[in-house]
Each structure stands twice: as C-alpha cells, then as structure tokens.
Write a structure and sequence with these properties.
The complex is a heterodimer. Chain A is an alpha/beta fold. Chain A has a single domain, classed as Rossmann fold (3-Layer(aba) Sandwich), CATH 3.40.50.880. Chain A is 21% helix and 25% strand. Chain A contains five helices and eleven strands; from the N terminus they run βαββαβαββββαβββα. In chain A, strand 3, helix 2 and strand 4 form a beta-alpha-beta unit. In chain A, helix 1 crosses helix 5. By secondary structure, chain B is an alpha+beta fold. Classes of the chains: A alpha/beta, B alpha+beta. At the A-B interface, loops of A face helix 1 of B.
Chain lengths: 234, 82
C-alpha cells in the first residue's frame, strides 16, 4: 500500500503523517507537493493538518485551488480513499468533497489536548477495522474545528451514516462537556456518501505509539492499510 | 484603454449561523455598560481594485465571491461597485 501526503505551503503535520506511515506502519509513502499534478500512484491520499496558506480567508479556502487538488478530486470520485486531518478536513469541506463547514471554536480559543472520540461508522476504509461504539483517545489541535451544517443536512448525514466520529467521554457517552469546540451533534469526523472520503479534526497521526500518549490513531491508519477494496488509480 | 473601478464586498454569516465572535463582542459591550446592543454580528470586508474595462465584470465578481471570498455554505455576500 502506498500513501501520498499532500504538502501545502503552511502544512505542518505532513512530516508527522509521513513518519507515522513509514516508520510505524512500515508502508511506502511519498510527499505530494501542492503544485504538482501527479499523485505518484498513491493508493491512499492524506491531506495533513497545519495552516495552509496561513489560514488566510478561511481554513483550507485557498489550498483547495492548488493544482494537486484537481487530481485529489478525480481520485476521490473514482473511489480512492482520501483522509483529511484537521486543516485537511477544512480543505475537504471547502472543495465540496465533504458537506458542511468548520467554523471558529465556540469558545474562540485554540484547543490543544487529548480527547475521546467514538467510532460511529465502520463503513469507511479508515474505520472498517474499528467497531461501532469503540472509543479512541486522540489529540486535537485547532482553533476552527466547530463543525456546522443546517438541521436538514445534519439529519441527512445522520440518516446516511455519514457521521464517522463523535466527541465523547472516556466511557463513550456523548456530553456537552466532551465537545471541545461547539460542533453540532458533537461531530468530530464525517465521510462522503461513498464513504471513501473521510475528514476529522483529531490527529490520528499524532497517536501512533504509546510513548506519544496513545496508539489509538494507528487503528485508523491500519484500517486503510488493510483495506482490500481500494480502487487503484488508473 | 484601461479604466479602474473599485468593488467592495461584504461577507457575513447567514442568519441562524452562530457567530461566536459577535457574541463575545456583544458580551464585552454589556460589560462596558453599553446594554442597548442586543446583538452583534461580525463579518469581513474586501476592497477589490478592478483593472481594465471588463465586459462581464458583474458575473466575474459574483464568481469570485462564491468561489473564494465567501463560503456559500455558511456565508452571504453583498457586492457594491464604487
């Protein structure tokens, strides 16, 4: 399995993602420069966290127009697995691959801490190795992770099983206190209708070894690594 | 011959979308003793200098707003040419 990690100017979790894949997962991985139009035959695309284009205008608003994103859009529409982490999630909502928007945290502060998230769907390449209801301990680090969409669209997401992760307490219960940013329905991650495009605010690539505080992020990376139904890019 | 004109774009959150910045500003006003301001909504403002006389400038401005300056999912925009 070959992973591609997109680097935008201002990405700062691209090396974390690269290291997690190469040194912990032991898989092939390549950086994909934002100006490039070549996904280098990657089987999985990671849009990493950071502050692409300085987060000017809105998180991800300018990165979505990078040449590499044309290729990512095509790859995603042919069923290729794409995961957007933090700023990568913002890029995915801005470019329309995922619905909704990520707004300023309701308390207006940057939030950097470990949180618990509950797996709500195992029907994506990134969670099929998890069980529904499983609680993962994964850090967040963002100022704009407040997921928003209108009631009708949220209901559609819920009905279609597109909510993939929700902020929760350690025991898996969903409470207001466990919600670190004001996201509607405690949503921490969603997927597209096909399930192959997943976006989440927490950073699985930062939780891949117990020495880092948690290795739960590996469950997400391992899931896609084991995923057999990947549509190889033509 | 080239002409220069200016367009001003106002971007704001749609009604019903929570504006934590506006809420915080309103609370600060309350604390300062300005209790007559029931609600504050924040937004962004852009000034665009348009070079040359472009025929379909209205359409192009609209495109620029919906594709980049505003996020149509949560924001509205208004264009004024000056």
């Amino acid at each position: 399995m070959k992973f591609g990690v997109v680097t935008f100017p201002g990405s700062n979790c691209d090396y974390d993602a690269y290291a997690a894949v190469r040194f912990v997962l032991g898989q092939e991985v390549e950086f994909l420069w934002h100006k490039s139009s070549d996904l280098c035959n990657a089987d999985v695309i990671i849009l990493p966290g950071g502050f692409s284009y300085g987060d000017y205008l809105r998180g991800g608003a300018i990165a979505r127009f990078s040449p590499i994103m044309e290729e990512v859009l095509q790859f995603a529409s042919s069923g290729g697995p794409v995961i957007g982490i933090c700023n990568g999630f913002q890029v995915l909502t801005e470019c329309g691959l995922l619905p909704g928007a990520l707004m300023r945290n309701s308390h207006l502060r940057f939030s950097c801490k470990y949180v618990h998230i509950r797996v709500e769907s195992d029907q994506t390449p990134f969670t099929h190795g998890c069980t529904v209801g499983e609680v993962l301990n994964i850090p967040i680090a963002h100022g704009e992770g407040n997921y928003y969409h209108f009631d009708k669209e949220i209901k559609e997401l819920e009905d279609n099983g597109q909510v993939v992760f929700r902020y929760c307490e350690a025991d898996g219960s969903i409470t207001e206190k466990a919600n670190p940013n004001g996201s509607i329905a405690g949503i921490a991650g969603i997927c597209n209708r096909g399930g192959n495009v997943v976006g989440l605010m927490p950073h699985p690539e930062r939780a891949v070894e117990s020495i880092l505080g948690s290795a739960d992020g590996l469950k997400i990376l391992n899931s896609v690594n084991d995923y057999k139904k990947v549509t190889a890019q033509a | 011959m080239s002409e220069t004109c200016k367009a001003v774009v106002y971007v704001r959150l749609k009604d019903g979308v929570l504006d934590p910045q506006g809420v915080t500003i309103q609370k600060a006003l309350l604390q300062m003793g300005y209790d007559e301001f029931a609600q504050v909504r924040s937004g962004r403002f852009f000034e665009l200098e348009v070079n040359g006389s472009v025929e379909n400038i209205d359409q192009r401005l609209d495109e620029v707003c919906s594709r980049l300056l505003a996020n149509p999912v949560i924001e509205n925009y208004r264009i004024e040419k000056v």
